[in-house]
Amino acid sequence: MEHFEKYLNLAYFYLSIRNRSEKEMRDYLTKKKASEEIIEKIIASLTEKKFLNDEVFARSWVLNRARLKPKGKAFLKFELRQKGITDEIIAKVLQEVQEEIPDELTQAKSLIDKRMERMKGVTREEIYQKVGGFLARRGFNWEVIKKAIDSYLRSD
Fold first, then answer.
1. Is the pLDDT of residue 76 over 80?
2. In this structure, are residues 104 and 143 in contact, taking their beta carbons and an 8 Å threshold?
3. Which residues contact 63 (CB under 8 A, 6 or more apart)?
4. What average pLDDT does this structure show over 109-138?
5. 94 and 110 share a domain?
6. What is the 3-state secondary structure (H, E, C) of 49-68?
7. 42 and 67, same domain (yes or no)
């Protein structure tokens, strides 16, 4: 049982850095060479104590992203899938937090404000290419990108 305690302490340390998904915890413990039996016991223990909950993790991930590093829904879905979150949980969380976070257009506009300062004297095409690429890499769709840039250019 001493191995269990060792790996459980490692799991607590890993969780102390930030909230984790079940998949992230499994991957971490596997990397630390924990046996499958120990991993299952730890996952069960952490879930029972409410330290692991994929829905809570996904919700906090989306809210933090909106606050700190805004990303489009497509990128958020991609990130959450990589972290082992199911499509059902992703859809549910994105629906639930819709009122708590700014819409994609608002987020895109706030992201391009700083970028546009550097675009003085640049052609419209270059603005669409450079700023559009910047937003696209953050998971915003073309419709949102176009509206955000158009809105900025009209107000300028």
1. yes
2. no
3. 97, 100, 101
4. 87
5. no
6. CCCCCHHHHHHHHHHHHHHH
7. no
Dihedrals φ, ψ of 45, to 5°?
-65, -45
Q: How far apart are CA 52 and CA 38, in angstroms?
A: 16
Same domain, 147 and 112: yes
- Count of domains forming the chain: 3
- Whether 151 and 110 map to the same domain: the answer is yes
Residue 16 reports pLDDT greater than 80? yes
Which of 82, 99, 116 is the last residue before a domain boundary? 99
Which residues span the domain enclosing 59? 54-99
Residues whose CB falls within 8 Å of the CB of residue 57, separated by 6 or more in sequence, listed in order: 19, 20, 21, 83, 85
Does the structure show a pLDDT above 80 at 155? no
Query: What 3-state class would DSSP assign to 70?
Result: coil
What's the whole-model pTM score? 0.80
pLDDT band at 1 (very low <50, low <70, confident <90, very high): low
